[in-house]
Amino acid sequence: MSAAQYAYLHTRINLYAGQLLGLNQIDALIDRPYDEQTGDAAPDAAALYAGDLDQSNVTILLHELSVLIRPLSGAPRELLGYWAHRFELGNLKTIIRGKMANQSQAAIQAQLQDMGNFTSLPIAELLQSDSAAELLRRLEQTPYAEIARQARHLLEQGEALFALDAALDRRYFAGLVRRSTAVDDTAGQLLRAIVGNIIDRVNLVWLLRYRYSYNLPPAQAYYLLIPASHRLLPQQLQQLAQCATFDEAIAALPAPFDRLLAGVRNSTEVTLHMEQEGWRIASNTLRHSSFNVARALAYMMLRERDLRRLRAIVRGRNMRMEAGMIRGALGLIENRAGVN
Question: In this structure, how many other beta carbons lie within 10 angstroms of the beta carbon of residue 290?
């Protein structure tokens, strides 16, 4: 990509980064007094959500992504475009579940996220499928062909929806790793850190849930993980899968995860701590690098974090939850001096 194109990207990211929220702004929204006359719980945050909260988040993220992706081509453009596919993957899961539950087309469509220009699924054709098996056969003619073949194979073997969901997610994350490693400019190392943290987080959380919530045997729990790794190596994941309890697995974590996850009590807390580490990596990339696509991915991650926090604040305050409960749900209490 030319220097002029990177300059455009760099400038756009800097402009967008100015709207990221600091903890002081989050605190102000959480602590804002209720307006007893109007019942307005958090007007500044609620203004972002004129309609459905989840759809509003997706719409905002995809609009900004469309601006950042504009000057890109080749592997960098492919990577950012693929990042957006995870929202569409949610649509695909919704359609599959709906077909397996014999829901009407209208009922399924009402649950879908509008992907705008990032739509690559033939939604109308998929909704017209008579069965989940036919849906997956049609999907093989789309960019999701690899995912569809694996899912159809599992369906033909009589696997449950859980296995289909796991297969879809596993293929998606494996594709994210491939696309991040295909970027061979100066952003490569930064991308490996960002995407690698995502892979470590997902693999560890999945392993803990499969083993200690779903009570799957060690071999099956390990088999369902993403076939990729970063700092948490395959042999280490295999050893963790052999642990008898959640607490034993946490105690056996290698560095730096032993420090990052000290004292966690469940997989939800593991997710939160690992996400915070990912936000730290993304923040460093955004602040201390320039003119590379890794900054775009870092910004999108931090922007999504902020929108998720705003959504949680709006919901919490509409339910008249105490400020401390909202902060606890966002994982902000124990990290006041730590990662945003």
Answer: 14
The answer to whether 164 and 151 have CB atoms below 8 angstroms apart is: yes
For the chain, the residue count is 340
Chain CA centroid to CA 202, Å: 9
- Collapsed DSSP state (helix, strand, coil) of residue 242: coil
Of 27-41, 59-73, 152-166, 297-311, the one with minimum mean pLDDT is 27-41
Q: Nearest 5°: phi and psi at 282?
A: -65, -40
Average pLDDT of the residues in 175-195: 89
The span from the CA of 232 to the CA of 212, in Å, is 19
Give the number of other Cβ atoms within 10 Å of residue 279's Cβ.
18
Q: Which two tokens stand for residue 200?
A: 């470590």
Residue matched to tokens 């870092």? 298
List the alpha helices (DSSP H) in 113-245. 123-127, 132-139, 145-156, 161-181, 188-212, 218-223, 234-241
Q: How would you write 53-76 as a 3-class SS string?
A: HHHHHHHHHHHHHHHHHCCCCHHH
* Contact indicator for 267, 209 with CB cutoff of 8 Å: yes
> What is the percent of the chain where pLDDT is above 70?
89
Tokens 């948490």 correspond to: 232
How is residue 137 written in tokens? 């056969």
Residue 40: strand, helix, or coil: strand
The pTM score is 0.89
Residue with tokens 């539950």: 101
Phi, psi of 164 (to 5 degrees): -65, -45
Enumerate the β-bridge partners of residue 38: none
Burial class (CB in 10 A: 0-12, 13-18, 19+), 338: exposed
